[in-house]
Amino acid sequence: MHGRRPTMSSLHGMVAAAHPLAAQAGARILSQGGNAFDAVGAVAAALNVVEPFMSSFGGMGSATMWVAAEKRVRVLDFVPPVPESFPLERFSRRSDLERGALAVAPPGNLAGWCELNRTYGRLSLAEIFAPAIALAADGFPIAEFGVAEFNEQAPLLRERPELHADWAKNYLPGGGDTIELGQILRQPDLAGTLSDIAAKGPEHFYRGALGETVIAHLKAKGGTLTMADLAKVAPRWREPIAATYRDRLVHVPPPACEGFQFLLTLRILDGFDLAGLERNGAEHLDIVYRAIRLAAGQRIAHNNPKPEKLAELMSDASVEKLRDRVRDGEPITGPTEQWMAEAPAGEDPAHTTSFSIADREGNLICVTQSIGSPFGSGVVVPGTGLCLNNFLYWADVQPGSPNRSQPGSELPMCMSPSLSTRNGEPVLALGTPGSYGILQTQAQAMVQHVDFGLPLQEAIEAPRARLWDGRAIEVEDRIPAGTIAALRQRGHEIVPFDVGWTMRVGGMQAVARDPANGKLTGACDPRRDGYVATP
């Protein structure tokens, strides 16, 4: 009412995803007796169909979850390492790896979905993938956000003729140059591929005929990925790292995941009485932006820290020094992306998706996964419907960088699927896409929800900002003009977006749980095609 989305609550399960049809696919699995871990595969595979510019089983990601039967938080990491075959010596600039076969890293998404199902699920892959297979075979009408993405990327990929023909055959079968609202997209090749995987299991991809088809195509396009690289893909169960924020404990995956920046930001902010300030006023936002920039600097300076170093960075003494820097009022200049300052302010090539799911049994999970840039590498394997990632674009290839990636090394990844507990009970699964902005915007939404008490949907809808290298910050112009002027006086180089809402500050999906009565509340981001569904 009053122009706002209604509160979506349920006792039987909740799915918050980046597209209505994907959310419905997860809800369908819950209604058929599956649990949250089964629903992950259904949602993820459906996203592969309906938002192929962000999702593919040829990507990678991670998940943070509450396992009700074990009464604990767990993390599944399905970000494979830099491939042994990676020809590091060929590159000196990140931009060399933005598109094409050389940018493709070993895909981990399919392995991750199947591992969650194998360990904690109870339905078959055929049951889990059925909604996505039907969507791919029957087709679906493309919604507003999809239209924008297709029409933005089509001319860019046309500039790469070695990629465009296969891409267009898969996604523009009518031969047109643009997509129109409501146009039906059918992907019969992808339907067949998902059906084969459902019947034969993930080994069909990682050690079987599908993998051989993919590797042969990459080799023909100049890539170096091998079957040995695929065969080494193995999701890892890991212990989460956590930090206290107000009355809750917030968990994210450990390094090489870069989510510790999000936790460090919260640790800094925990020393300030934000609730006593004017919401979205200059003082509130100045403190949050300063904390974010300081935490980003620590993440970049100490990328992929060992446990001992991470404990030092998160210690009271270290955090208090950063709080003092927030308080001193002097402008803060520093990087927010990688070690280098190559990427200009305003560049955000990442296309990621995040979804959160809860079931009636008490399981709660947040998954963040990606194919990297829009349509990843741009490589579509003929006859498969598979669009491959460009995650080696997120490797650091700069000579002289202390974080330079090596073949076989862990690939640091700026994802941060989070799971919050309070008094040992799960209360919130929250995640977002947005490249290095992920580590910034989740903290902003958490402040709105926890400190200012906004309902989850309103906290996600609240105006957000994206910080860039130096002092640059882009903000949604729903922040008052007077506040923006005051922030400039404090040393922030603020540039308002000329629209009230922008995907440049993420596309957040979340599910909250009330431990007192089991009520589940879902929230989704109107900046993209986010939607909530219940069984």
Automatic annotation (TrEMBL):
<dbReference type="InterPro" id="IPR029055">
    <property type="entry name" value="Ntn_hydrolases_N"/>
</dbReference>
<dbReference type="Pfam" id="PF01019">
    <property type="entry name" value="G_glu_transpept"/>
</dbReference>
<dbReference type="InterPro" id="IPR051792">
    <property type="entry name" value="GGT_bact"/>
</dbReference>
<protein>
    <submittedName>
        <fullName>Gamma-glutamyltransferase</fullName>
        <ecNumber>2.3.2.2</ecNumber>
    </submittedName>
</protein>
<dbReference type="InterPro" id="IPR043137">
    <property type="entry name" value="GGT_ssub_C"/>
</dbReference>
<keyword id="KW-0865">Zymogen</keyword>
<keyword id="KW-0378">Hydrolase</keyword>
<dbReference type="GO" id="GO:0103068">
    <property type="term" value="F:leukotriene C4 gamma-glutamyl transferase activity"/>
</dbReference>
<keyword id="KW-0012">Acyltransferase</keyword>
<comment type="similarity">
    <text>Belongs to the gamma-glutamyltransferase family.</text>
</comment>
<dbReference type="InterPro" id="IPR043138">
    <property type="entry name" value="GGT_lsub"/>
</dbReference>
<keyword id="KW-0808">Transferase</keyword>
